[in-house]
Specification:
The protein is an alpha/beta fold and 267 residues long. It is built from eleven helices and eight strands. Strands 1-2-3-4-5-6-7-8 form an eight-stranded parallel barrel, surrounded by five helices. Strand 6, helix 9 and strand 7 form a beta-alpha-beta unit. The radius of gyration is 20 Å and the shape is globular.
Amino acid sequence: MSNPTHKLSTHSIGARKGKEKIVAVTAYDFTFAKLVDPLADLVLVGDSLGMVVQGRSTTLGVTLDEMVYHTKAVARGLKRAHLVADLPFGSYQPSVRDAIQSASRLLAEGEAEAVKLEGGEAMAETVRALVSIGIPVMGHIGLTPQSVHSFGGFKVQGKTDLAQKQILRDALALEAAGAYSLVLEAVPAELADEVTRTLRIPTIGIGAGPKCDGQILVLTDLLGLNPDFKPRFVKNFAPLASLVTEAVGEYAKQVRGGNFPEPEHCF
């Protein structure tokens, strides 16, 4: 493990390509950020919070104010991991000016160290503009959740030859525009391998096979906090949903039975 007091940066992440796998997770609050900080290289405050925190069916309703709020909370818990924040839907697509204003808020108010946006060739001009004024950008192609309606649902992308060629063009366009890394979501493993080998910047996969330069999972998914959500790309590394239920059940039992609080819990 790297020196826990050394704050990882865009350069640190870029230097991992071909040398050391990048470990990335999402986080949405101070407590979990502090827990994952010594273990993860990169923490993403994803607009996935719309689904896992707010209970929405998509990420589309998350606002920039909400992203700033959650990013600021996560920033307080990180001493080592590199912090990236999602630009939410509608905060960057209308114009380059909107993108600059939104990204600036995430860095200045939210204390993010980089932003992530979805889209390939169509977003290259926006990425170039952000990078030119000192805002690091992580790209995101393949299944881009903000485009869920145009995709007709959360579906694997890049199945046809035409779609695969477009994803490769998107990746190259983002790299040329100055993106320092790239998320590949829900694409065939063979395609992700080709993109990873083609690019000079690191790829971070989610549902994109083992050949990416790193992997990212939503924290609640890897902790098994939502056993009803079981897409193929998710592995539950702990059964925390059952442990939480057990703990709260025992708490309820002791409260109702008059066994909590005990003398050692009183002033």
